[in-house]
Amino acid sequence: LSGPPKTPKPAVAELFLTEHAHVRMLRVLLELFYQPMLREGFFDEQELSNIFPSLEDLVEVHTLFLDSLKKLREESGFIIAEIGDVLLARFEGTEGSWFQKISARFCSRQSFALEQLKAKQRKDTRFNLFIQEAESRPRCRRLQLKDIIPTEMQRLTKYPLLLLSITKCTEVAAERAKVEQAAECCRQILNHVNQEVRDMENLMKLKDYQRRLDLSNLKQSTDPLLSEFKNTDITKRTLVHEGPLTWRVTRDKAVEVQVLLLDDLLVLLQRQEERLVLRCHSRALAPAPDGKQMLSPVIRLRSAMTREVATDHKAFYVIISWENGAQIYELVAQSVSERK
């Protein structure tokens, strides 16, 4: 009897066994942590839906996928010949879009979840004891909650690799094409979720910056950009890069700043204990009416350009020019690679 060549057992077996293990771990998260937290009143339903968004949906989706793998295995006499259709049903089309959506929701809140739970443990002795008791259960397999929460992101990373290993041992071209298409869908889902995670992490950083911003020094400023910035919510902008730089205001004056590169602004913040202060600096300049030029800590990117500093490979100029003149900022990175 001739039929499609059987897919070698190890490749599909690994997908099956690791999916089974993942469903088990998601159920641990749901049944040992999420549901008791709600039942015991540690968090209300809205708070938990922010910490573990779409967890119940994820358990359902992964369980259905595991069930479809089990059914295929039983129908094929435990030696699976064709798995492509089952994979496409899970990762492509409407089902794939739904899986992408709920995975992105859950994974993008991962850092937030860990922060919230850690803060609650510090403040609430009863909650801390609850977590310790839950983590000691055999079902947790010696894993802590902080190790269990990232498992969904880890699973998404694993899918393309698992499916690639199946394609390598699938001889029939049509079947191999289906598995390759499913693997491509997995890569697209992973890329989308990674971007959502980055966007959420940036938003969390910007919220922290917004909370610590001290705008008191801007009240006396007549600079229209600074006046506008007093009422700006930076969480509505996109964080492109952040890090420490030295701002050489003059030859004799240097200021350590935390720089935020946003989608339309460069912001130079000075640390003052827990606060981040926006402070203008002046330098002597003969053509100016009072002999000084004021340098704003907020630079609009659309009117700025950068140039290297020939005498210092860690430094660069930011030049703002307009009809009546220009302002030049000299900024120094901690290393040549950071400057780039």
Automatic annotation (TrEMBL):
Keywords: Coiled coil, Cytoplasm, Guanine-nucleotide releasing factor, Membrane, Phosphoprotein. GO terms for molecular function: G protein-coupled receptor binding; guanyl-nucleotide exchange factor activity. Gene3D superfamilies: Dbl homology (DH) domain (1.20.900.10), Pleckstrin-homology domain (PH domain)/Phosphotyrosine-binding domain (PTB) (2.30.29.30). SUPFAM superfamilies: DBL homology domain (DH-domain), PH domain-like. GO terms for cellular component: cytoplasm; membrane. This is ARHG1 factor. It is found in: Cytoplasm; Membrane. Residues 7-196 form the DH domain. PANTHER family: RHO GUANINE NUCLEOTIDE EXCHANGE FACTOR 1, RHO GUANINE NUCLEOTIDE EXCHANGE FACTOR 2, ISOFORM D.
